[in-house]
Amino acid sequence: APAIRLEDYSPAPYTIEAVALDMQLAPKATQVHARLTIRRLTDTLPGTPLVLDGGGLELTSLSVNGVAIPVESYTVTPDKLELLSPPSEPFELEIGTRIDPDANTQLEGLYRSSGTYCTQCEAEGFRRITYFLDRPDVLAVYTTRIEARKSEAPILLGNGNPVESGPVPDKPERHFAIWHDPHPKPSYLFAMVAGDLAHVADSFTTRSGRNVDLKIYVEHGREDKCDWAMDSLKRSMRWDEEVFGCEYDLDVFNIVAVSDFNMGAMENKGLNIFNDKYVLADQDTATDQDYANIEAVIAHEYFHNWTGNRITCRDWFQLCLKEGLTVFRDQEFSSDMRSRAVKRISDVRLLKSHQFPEDAGPLAHPVRPRKYTEINNFYTATVYEKGAEVVRMLKTLVGADGFKAGTDLYFQRHDGEATTIEAFLACFAEVSGQDLSHFALWYEQAGTPLVEVESSYDATAQSLTLQISQEIAPLPGQADSKPAVIPIRFGLIGSDGADMSFDKVEGAEVRQDCLILSQRRQTVRFSGVSERPALSLLRGFSAPVKLHAPEKDQDLAFRAAHDSDPFNRWQASQTLATQSLLRLVRAAEAGEELVADSVVLDVFGSILSDGSLDPAFRALSLQLPGEADLAREIGKNVDPTAVLKARDALRAALGSTHMDLLRAALSQRESGPFDPGAEAAGKRALANQALAYFAASDASDAALIVNDLFDRADNMTDRLAALTLLVHGDLPGAQAALEAFRNRHETSSLALDKWFMVQATAPLSSTLETVRDLAGHRLFDENNPNRVRSLVHAFATGNPSQFGRPDGAGFSFVADHVLALDARNPQVAARLLTCFRSWRAYEAQRSSHAEAALQRISEAENLSRDSRDIVDRCLQ
Ligand code: B3K
Ligand code: ZN
Hints:
Elements: E1 4-5, E2 14-24, E3 30-40, E4 50-53, E5 58-64, E6 67-68, E7 74-77, E8 80-83, E9 91-99, E10 109-113, E11 116-120, E12 140-149, E13 155-158, E14 161-168, E15 171-185, E16 192-195, E17 198-205, E18 211-218, H1 227-244, E19 252-258, E20 265-266, E21 271-275, H2 288-303, E22 312-313, H3 319-337, H4 340-360, E23 371-372, H5 381-414, E24 418-419, H6 421-432, H7 441-444, E25 450-458, E26 463-471, E27 486-493, E28 504-506, E29 509-511, E30 514-517, E31 521-527, E32 534-537, E33 546-548, H8 553-562, H9 566-589, H10 598-609, H11 615-622, H12 627-634, H13 640-657, H14 659-667, H15 678-696, H16 702-712, H17 716-728, H18 734-745, H19 749-760, H20 767-775, H21 785-798, H22 800-803, H23 809-822, H24 826-833, H25 844-859, H26 865-875
Helix pairs in contact: 1-2, 2-3, 3-4, 3-5, 4-5, 4-9, 5-6, 8-9, 8-10, 9-11, 9-13, 11-15, 12-13, 13-15, 14-15, 15-16, 15-17, 16-17, 18-19, 19-21, 21-23, 23-24, 23-25, 24-26, 25-26
Bound molecules: (3S)-3,7-diaminoheptanoic acid and zinc ion (ZN).
């Protein structure tokens, strides 16, 4: 497939101003009739052909201004409809197409999930419903008439506001509904849903007094699992008014939860469609992490109403315009709902574990890519999470007031438009008076800058000098890099633990507590520094960079106890643990005895016993860097078995050293009614973190205590935590617990996903065999993306030592699944395939096995464009 390039962008020669769709639903033959009001743009020569996109369509009728058109005036294939000489005046084009929702296994366009008709149009799914200018810069007003058998689909939903509904004359078994969306929108935001669904209802009054009916639609019997989602929705709506001044703009807001969905959720105008994983929750089936995710995803999709829908993207290269900004907005929302420090730490952990490896390997791309062959492969951690970090840096640079003024201007100036990153940045440059042209490099350049800092203190001169450099390692298609604008928030910590003052700074711009780097190499000199400080750099993770500032274990321990910035306090303990673990990895590789460093044991002990700290923060600080995090730090010649051994050794040492503290922490587990809020969740996280170390210790009653907790747990968080420890630790009782869990949750698909996932992520040599068996289990369903993700994806991404088995069997198993999936659902297959992206970082034997698996995929016939793109880039 040819690459599509940003530099080739040009507007379509025609525009579509209005769309009237009539959809006659039937499982195997849905008839779609589209009436498009089309206008030639003034720059377009009369007679210029009109080329509409299609995707596997069957044309059943075609007319212009009400008259069927002769065959010689158009050409048609399933993927394209071309009018050779359209009228030069505005005209109505009527198109009939027939589609087969039941045969749609790729879950793009119109498909059925457990019998419910639903759609997914972003990025290019609308063309699988009718021929269209299926690109985000064509904004039309949509009216949708949906007709279906009443028994099959009593609920008929569309975008916008409901207009009319009723029985179909002369067809007593059928009924219809008409929906009208007054806000012009791109085709990717089109949606319709039809099915036999239950719902819960609520309402929201906007700040200007508009009443909005809120409904969440779910499968019958699941109504009692919608409370948290509804509550999150109302809090999102209020927050967006208060913080961003964004008010909702329709009479209704509908959410539909479906069980077969390629991604998390979709922000269709007025009709969000969700993976039910991000809607349904109750004490018995959802973990605290699930509750937090639901809150965040509900907010994210709702926030798209302004950042994405009212203001959309000119082309798909601008995807980060809506995604980076909306992720930033949902992160801020969660920070306001929960602990800001804890949210920041969780977000940075996610960025480092998902985005950093992407940005360091063959799939690296700029936040705004310059070319793609399959746009669905660019819904990445770089576009989303790094995109959000770039918005966060923008806020740091222009300040909170400048940022507010900038977003106000953006909403006012670009409302109703499809626009670009340049237009977005111009708003902030204008209100702040700052030149942001150098900053724009963050959208253009791939790779994570490595910032290296060497410091020296001169006691006589009372000055501190920092030698700072920044550099991005070469990447495919990016041999060298340019220095970026990097805001480094910092503090100089004195021996009393307090931040010290200084007189002046030379060699870099400093705004308040922020050092602004902009050159490849800079020497920065602080004067009036009264003693040698502990240097706290990159506070709050103020830029998405890798920071190397050599620091002794003792200094890290000091900052882990005293840094006034909670993020860096956490980071200090993590860096300390990482340094220690890397030494253990080297020892494991050399076959030496693994002895944990006492300073790490001490620091963890202090955190464990410091009751003045927020429990959620303590739980995060006690969590060791993951196996994949360590592999990333090692960077090359990685042996995942040695990494696992090192981590196990430190966990065991921590457990055995602090057994008494751990017992005490365990006894503090709270009872009483379940509360899904952040505070109660933090206490559970801490208790379960303590339990994890206890289980790893040499305590003779460890297995007993974990089994007991499993039996007594009255909520999913605790039950799953105990089950994970039993299964991953291969403890007595594991098999019985798995069986009890499966019996208990047999009818809850989302809970069963966890049963698959726990087994897939066990770091045991028997796991691959278990996973193979599970793939043939009666409860496994290769057509349900959540189930595939919970087994195969979880194995490939959440089990480094077993996916990366030295015999290559883990790679081979995943490759088999990629190939089998690819024929049915290319998007899910291609996403799974990205788990190979760091294959070159393995030691020689493993990397040659991984390469062979990729080669095998590459040689398959009829590989989808999605998987072809990923495999080609991985092997390049
Ligand atoms: N915009 C959708 C993602 C669509 C993915 C298409 N492959 C969800 C979101 O980011 O909110
Ligand atoms: Zn989004």
